[in-house]
Automatic annotation (TrEMBL), chains A, B:
Family label: Belongs to the ROK (NagC/XylR) family.
Molecular function as annotated in GO: DNA-binding transcription factor activity; kinase activity
Protein name: Sugar kinase of the NBD/HSP70 family, may contain an N-terminal HTH domain
Entry superkingdom: Bacteria
Species the sequence originates in: Micromonospora echinofusca
Keyword Kinase: yes
One Pfam family, short name: MarR_2
Gene3D superfamilies: 3.30.420.40, Winged helix-like DNA-binding domain superfamily/Winged helix DNA-binding domain (1.10.10.10)
Amino acid sequence: MISSHNEPRPSDLGDVRTANRAVVLRHVRRHAPCSRADIAAHTGLNKATVSSLVGELVERRLLRETGLTENRVGRPATMLVLDGAPYAALGMQIGADELVVLATDLAGTRLLTWRRAFAAPSSSPAETVRALAALARRAITRLTGQGRRVLGLSVGVPGLVDADGAVPRATALGWRDVALAADLRAALREPDLAVDVDTDANLAALAEHRHGAYAGTSHLVHLTGGASVGAGIVADGRLLRGARGFAGEVGHLTLDPAGPGCACGRRGCLVAYAGLPAVVGRLLPDTRQDGPVTDFLPEIQRIQALARQDDPTVLAGLADVGCHVGHAASVLANLINPQAVVVGGHFATLAPWLLPAARAEFAARTHAPAAGGCLLDASTLGSSATALGGATAALAVVESGRLPAA
Amino acid sequence: MISSHNEPRPSDLGDVRTANRAVVLRHVRRHAPCSRADIAAHTGLNKATVSSLVGELVERRLLRETGLTENRVGRPATMLVLDGAPYAALGMQIGADELVVLATDLAGTRLLTWRRAFAAPSSSPAETVRALAALARRAITRLTGQGRRVLGLSVGVPGLVDADGAVPRATALGWRDVALAADLRAALREPDLAVDVDTDANLAALAEHRHGAYAGTSHLVHLTGGASVGAGIVADGRLLRGARGFAGEVGHLTLDPAGPGCACGRRGCLVAYAGLPAVVGRLLPDTRQDGPVTDFLPEIQRIQALARQDDPTVLAGLADVGCHVGHAASVLANLINPQAVVVGGHFATLAPWLLPAARAEFAARTHAPAAGGCLLDASTLGSSATALGGATAALAVVESGRLPAA
């Protein structure tokens, strides 16, 4: 039996300093530019502690002093911001028809977003690792050429990811037991680079929690649409991963045992109604004639165009998909009671036509009054939310107050 | 937008002492009898700190020294245990046909378990509050007569409970917007007694996490069978409550939209297949002739007797109920990835006949390999798990390292 991670633990002065460093970094992230006195006033830390911590963080180039001063009585205060220049982090995502790499600095500013068409579902895991490594290496070369140090890289996968960054199963990619983190580390040969793997939904939820319209919300679910459908669950401000990291598996939730057949062998799974191949196959039946779709973007654009022309079949089909999305979101709201379920991927792209039906179904199926305060909404982060979350995840070590190795 | 509860916070020496007090209490709870040296060796706290903390905890009668000494080289060490004598806590539960009050001491030893037949579903909220208060007052009188101080009381309700201990909805009781905690505080007139309310499933999960066969498991779900069906979710060692405390609402999960009608107006909800009235109504159709069942225990005993006689209709019915329980448990396992889903209430009473079918369905419907490491099992805590969890909850303040008011 694994003992709890949240049990009381002995605490010492080193922990206190690390925790307080994290407090200072968080305050500056949210309120920059701000002065040492602001930090002390708002965090409850005393001024001498703030001064010592800020000195260290400036020396390690996590914070920098700006030329700005505060307009106030007495000696002008030097204003602080996060230092975006020295460090960067990478996030990547394996989509249904593309790979994405995205870099941010410590302040969350996007430094680059590159996409490369790549059909991971019809490629081998080894080909995918090679393509990811090549794309990451190009990004690292660009960033180091700008004088930045890349702290880490986190990749989002549409499937189950274990604590070692291996993928026991990713049905949408046809993967079983792929040691993705280890293989990618080996392919990159960058021993100082922290390489992690997570589910696409978890990383999208992190991006939503940091950068989305519901940023800072303590209880948040991101329902990620794609070739698979997954849920990233933020509870009490942290990702809910479960015992082995497999939490959020919602794609094969049975909505109706008499529903359409699913690749898993059952009927009526969420993904069989609302996954990207199901939506394209249903709304654009002509695509089936050409074999499996490998390039989804143009098909989604066709669906958008037909919906804008008020094509009745497409509108009815989208409303039906929306019902199923709303049903799944209601299960998440009833079980997890978040403040928002945010839909991403093609659910967000098609939101103008999906959301009205989804919200009606959601309202009817949530049990607590007013859906327990939960809103159902579309992500505003666009189609690289997972990669953005990957970069956010790769910065977590620094944000927790630990200093990057010198 | 509510900001996160788990964000980094400034830490000071008072927090350190409180945290370390909790560490010492936890170590003694798990490893008593143990010496000051044992505590220092196993917790990483230094001996002087342990000595100071233990002195304070002995003085406040949370720990006591036993006559035992450790058999070892050097000066004999005085052994410590939790002091069970001075304090007690109460847990209560509102069942389908009874009220239960249970008391434990700080060490978790049961001091009393009293049941009173009471048909809450056919009583008014005010009658229920009066009956709860009368039962609690009798228990408090008994405990104070033994020289104990009662620190708190926590009541488990089969319904939604908000952060103020009010019950916006409890379908099984016919309640809407009952200010239970406030009403019970007013009825008890014990201003020094902390009175809290939680869902029956949350308290049962706490009991399971502390006292059950899966005690100490960080990721655990308790699926509570009764007139309603709820899930208490322990994630990372703590209850997952969600934004407004409404997490764990699984009773109206649609298993089959073509299934039996439910009191909620939909069809095929979990509770319509597996709730106590549904199980009794289906397996003992003769009970329907006498109007709604108000006394479930004898009916469950009849079902057990028929099952033991291998009554084929009852066995087939129980297997079918088991399938639905397994289906619901698989949804919880796929979304939350706990180490165990433990079923309680009448699911545990009927486990010999429910579990085989439940486990087969669970295995077939969990998506991760080996169900993500999740076991499906029956609670061993009996029919007062919620009340036991209530007493556990009422001790949480002291266990977190805060000292009881002098």
